[in-house]
């Protein structure tokens, strides 16, 4: 640099005037380097994507593969977090979450696609051999509800009689077994019929029920450097499949 930054003798070491002038720049350079190293380390941390009972069905693998190909070094970890309605966003287990109900609070999200409603019936149900079902046909049946993250709540049946029996469960496995055992019926989405077949359960389209939106959500202040990249990739994927 052509300047003496430190003056020292047998008794003291101190910055020269040039050193005093240079010190703030040195601090900024060190901080910038540390930030760059932290960013580089963060880029190598797996991006955790949580889900409760279904991820994105047939789109999950291709989307993850496309994202990782577009961002060399990025790794996506898919996590089932069925004890949290926000699929791990609540406690930080997930950087992003695949949800089927709109979240509250400081959560951003976008609609990835819609899925058709289905009703899940035990084999013994009178409608089990039908090709479709309606809300009116199923409004008086006992209802099995996943109270943690399910989308088939009693309010779906606006005309159901008060006091309808409700069987509460905590995850999709309990939900399926309760229905198969004849404890009641359940409502879910078309991806559940694909991803969670059961020999004791029949899925039928609920012809008169509104579809369910599949959402990709993340915390507004998420610090993982790949969160925004994954969201952008998912939006592109969603648009490309919109007319299929």
From TrEMBL:
It comes from the Bacteria. GO terms for molecular function: DNA binding; DNA-binding transcription factor activity. Keywords: DNA-binding, Transcription, Transcription regulation. GO terms for cellular component: protein-DNA complex. Residues 47-236 form the LysR substrate-binding domain. Pfam families: LysR_substrate. SUPFAM superfamilies: Periplasmic binding protein-like II. Belongs to the LysR transcriptional regulatory family. This is LysR substrate-binding domain-containing protein. It comes from Streptomyces roseochromogenus subsp. oscitans DS 12.976.
């Amino acid at each position: 640099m052509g300047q003496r930054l430190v003056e020292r003798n047998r008794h003291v070491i101190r910055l020269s005037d040039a050193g005093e002038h240079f010190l703030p720049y040195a601090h900024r350079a060190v901080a910038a380097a540390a930030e760059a190293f932290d960013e580089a380390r963060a880029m190598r941390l797996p991006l955790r994507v949580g889900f409760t009972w279904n991820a994105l069905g047939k789109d999950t693998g291709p989307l993850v593969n496309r994202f990782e190909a577009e961002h060399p070094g990025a790794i996506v970890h898919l996590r089932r977090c069925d004890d949290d309605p926000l699929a791990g966003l609540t406690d930080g287990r997930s950087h992003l979450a695949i949800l089927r109900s709109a979240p509250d609070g400081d959560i951003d999200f976008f609609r990835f696609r819609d899925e058709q409603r289905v009703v899940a019936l035990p084999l013994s149900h009178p409608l089990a051999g039908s090709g479709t079902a309606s809300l009116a046909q199923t409004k008086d049946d006992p209802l099995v509800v996943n109270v943690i993250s399910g989308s088939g709540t009693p309010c779906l049946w606006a005309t159901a009689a008060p006091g309808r029996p409700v069987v509460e469960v905590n995850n999709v496995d309990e939900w399926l077994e309760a229905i198969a055992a004849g404890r009641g019926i359940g409502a879910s989405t078309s991806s559940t019929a694909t991803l969670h077949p059961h020999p004791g359960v029949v899925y039928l389209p609920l012809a008169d029920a509104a579809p369910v939106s599949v959402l990709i959500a993340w915390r507004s202040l998420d610090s993982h450097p790949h969160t925004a990249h994954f969201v952008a990739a998912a939006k592109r994927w969603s648009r490309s499949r919109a007319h299929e």
